[in-house]
Design brief:
Largest sheet: 3 strands, mixed
CATH topology: L-arginine/glycine Amidinotransferase, Chain A
Strand content: 15-25%
CATH architecture: 5-stranded Propeller
Distance between the termini: 18 Å
Shape: globular
Order of helices and strands: EHEEEHHEHEEHEEEEEHEHEEHHEHE
Number of helices: 10
Low-confidence stretches: none
CATH class: Alpha Beta
Strand order of the largest sheet: 2-1-17
Amino acid sequence: MQTTDTVLMIEPVAFGYNAETAENNYFQVEQKGADIQSKALAEFNIFVEKLRSKGIHVITVKDTIEPHTPDSIFPNNWVSFHKDGKVVLYPMFASNRRVERREDIIETIKNQGFEVDEIDDWSLPEIQGHFLEGTGSMIFDHDHKIAYGSVSLRLDENLFREFCEKYDFTPVVFHSFQTVAEERLPIYHTNVMMCVADQFVVICLQCIDNETERAHVVETIKNSEKEIIEISEAQMQQFAGNMLQVQNREGEKFLVMSQTAYQSLEQDQISAIEKYCEIISSDLTTIEVNGGGSARCMLAEIFLPKK
């Protein structure tokens, strides 16, 4: 199943600009001022309420003051929850993100009635400088067992292929770039330039500079019988690729995105999405600017079986 009705979200307590991740996350901009955390918390709370109002099950866990984890609001990078009862932990680029991995969060999810049969810990390669940042770096087409991965410092190609082999995904490897000060630099996470839903894919093909790789991605999507909804690089910069399809308890589907992303879309793109599902958008400006991530990054999907 491509979509879930349950997501994990981490409530921020000391959110802010993370200089460690800014090394290769070119979406981040440091804002000065003491109210960054309070603004981020307000955005978080409104976002959670919007999701819950549509019948989506949101499990929230509060972050801790110590250790300081300014990016904990983006849990999908360190953990994923699978329908076979496995919980996977991932190797993280920034050392201050590695301490986001918390056993008590997994216990909270178990206490909510979900079954965890195994914790599969892939975090060890981070010590050698090899990273695979969860569903930030990998985009899963669950129905067709395809995993899309854009190579960057946060997606090690060998680790990605190893993961796909173990979890029976066909890897689609490519390179995507964004223009930063007139230079083409790798996009830090695949999930800012593409989103795979049940019947469509939102993707910035302009970011895939290599024509052969681009053609392979397009062919793979078409063979999976999903409609391609293309966004521009300018829209990708507004987080229009950072979307996630979820469903509610009744099985109604929604595409979740930020207000910034929604406002960047053209009417024909909105209409193309709304053929398939309703859009939920929320103002995440403070989180996007300082954190360099958006709506999709804030949602860790839970596919675990219920007890």
